[in-house]
């Protein structure tokens, strides 16, 4: 397994202390509890680990049954290590209790990982009959954190040893000299048997860490590719990953929008919690993709609005009678809204807003069915954004807070366009906002780190970023 990776060790890294996100990346702080859960889960159900321990054939046989890796013919069976002691014929490992995991983060290096387990050995005693032994074992290992050749975080075993605890004779008779032989042999054999278990556990966890390097589709807009921007940093309580989101169009072009001029001040992380910080840049980039793809444009006709919302020349003339009073009555209007500049997202304390500059070309349909132009408006829509996390995304729901417009050009006399703002706001709320929220269904992707689920995360909007915090 070691030969598959080009490992860059992290010696000399210091504990993060300034709380500043210097880059525009997505900052992830993964609590040591999450790493512990990932290791424990790999012991329970990791397929790679099962290949090392052997297949569970029945409840009574335990993890190392007669058909397992260490079963009949294994290292501890007749002809194996104990072959020199004929009286202990057939002694082999039959059971291995699910290890209890404990770990300690080592700042600047990696992890001190301990697995405490109990090994059950069965065989024939020197006086005949079944011989059953149980030995408590603590597997202690030092694991370095680095970066693989693929650019993902990786844990790799650097040192492993076993400490043999109390040995119990559960059944059968075993003279003291032979008991000593068993003890000494276990001291020699168990490191070679159990340290590969640690290596296999790390293999499962590294697969989870490898998901940081992922390509997340954004529907018809493009995709976001997450990469590791800098070396991981280890503190006493968490692993910090600066993850760079690279946004690409459908054609594969990298979308580059202006970055915030100042670093993000990331709030401190409490113990037993994990954090992910989503930068303003990612919000602006997604909205920029919507704009360049034309997803923010719309043509509004009476068929898109309820009958209670007026959208005829009669209704328009009533708003500005001195200028538009001579329009033919009862003709349907066509409002062509176009967004030619990228929207601006603002993230401030506890509030998220989106500002969309737009032009609105107003026409009416003549009896012949041919549209005739009336005037053009330039305006700005200010939208409130409600944010809600799911397991893998940050979802947005927008509502119109206010609309300001001014007359850009007119095919008749000039007039005060602000008199149309309330009417236009009603039209946009029923015709434009539902379409915009459907297009935003792609959400803001979150990086995948150790399968941390942010669906129930506490969400905090700070200056130029959103912080999601989940209890481990």
From TrEMBL:
Residues 29-271 form the Lipid-binding serum glycoprotein N-terminal domain. Residues 1-19 form the signal peptide. SMART domains: BPI1, BPI2. Residues 270-470 form the Lipid-binding serum glycoprotein C-terminal domain. One of its GO terms (molecular function) is lipid binding. It is found in: Secreted. GO terms for cellular component: extracellular region. Belongs to the BPI/LBP/Plunc superfamily. BPI/LBP family. May have the capacity to recognize and bind specific classes of odorants. May act as a carrier molecule, transporting odorants across the mucus layer to access receptor sites. May serve as a primary defense mechanism by recognizing and removing potentially harmful odorants or pathogenic microorganisms from the mucosa or clearing excess odorant from mucus to enable new odorant stimuli to be received. This is BPI fold-containing family B member 3. The lineage of its organism: Eukaryota, Metazoa, Chordata, Craniata, Vertebrata.
């Amino acid at each position: 397994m070691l030969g598959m990776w080009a490992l860059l060790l992290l010696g000399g890294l210091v504990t993060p202390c300034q709380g500043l996100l210097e880059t525009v990346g997505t900052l992830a702080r993964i609590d040591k509890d999450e790493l512990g859960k990932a290791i424990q889960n790999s012991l329970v159900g990791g397929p790679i680990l099962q290949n090392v321990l052997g297949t569970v054939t029945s409840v009574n046989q335990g993890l190392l049954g007669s058909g397992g890796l260490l079963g009949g013919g294994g290292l501890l069976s007749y002809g194996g290590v104990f072959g020199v002691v004929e009286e202990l014929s057939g002694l082999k490992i039959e059971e291995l209790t699910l290890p209890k995991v404990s770990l300690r983060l080592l700042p600047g290096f990696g992890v001190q990982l301990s697995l405490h387990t109990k090994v059950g050995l069965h065989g024939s005693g020197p006086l005949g009959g079944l011989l059953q032994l149980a030995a408590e074992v603590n597997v202690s290992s030092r694991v370095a954190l680095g970066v693989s050749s693929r650019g993902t975080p990786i844990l790799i075993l650097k040192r492993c040893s076993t400490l043999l605890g109390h040995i119990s004779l559960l059944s059968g008779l075993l003279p003291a000299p032979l008991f000593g032989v068993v003890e000494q042999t276990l001291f020699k054999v168990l490191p070679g048997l159990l340290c590969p278990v640690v290596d296999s556990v790390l293999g499962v966890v590294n697969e989870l860490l490898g998901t940081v390097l992922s390509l997340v589709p954004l529907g018809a807009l493009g995709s976001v590719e997450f990469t590791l921007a800098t070396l991981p940093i280890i503190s006493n309580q968490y692993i910090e990953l600066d993850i760079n989101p690279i946004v690409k169009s459908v054609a594969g072009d990298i979308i580059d929008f202006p970055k915030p001029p100042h670093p993000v001040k990331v709030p401190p992380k409490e113990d037993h919690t994990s954090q992910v910080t989503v930068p303003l840049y990612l919000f602006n980039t997604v909205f920029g993709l919507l704009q360049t793809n034309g997803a923010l444009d719309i043509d509004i006709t009476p068929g898109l609005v309820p009958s209670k919302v007026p959208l005829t020349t009669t209704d328009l003339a009533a708003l500005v009678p001195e200028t538009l009073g001579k329009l033919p009555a009862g003709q349907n209007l066509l409002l062509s809204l176009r967004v030619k500049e990228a929207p601006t997202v603002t993230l401030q304390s506890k509030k998220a807003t989106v500002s969309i500059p737009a032009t609105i070309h107003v026409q009416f349909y003549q009896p012949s069915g041919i549209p005739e132009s009336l005037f053009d408006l330039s305006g700005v829509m200010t939208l409130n954004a409600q944010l809600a996390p799911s397991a893998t995304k940050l979802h947005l729901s927008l509502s119109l807070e206010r609309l300001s417009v001014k007359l850009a050009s007119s095919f008749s006399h000039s007039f005060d366009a602000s008199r149309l703002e309330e009417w236009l706001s009603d039209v946009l709320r029923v015709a434009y906002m539902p379409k915009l929220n459907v297009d935003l269904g792609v959400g803001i992707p979150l990086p995948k780190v150790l399968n941390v689920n942010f669906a129930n995360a506490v969400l905090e909007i700070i200056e130029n970023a959103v912080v999601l915090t989940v209890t481990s």
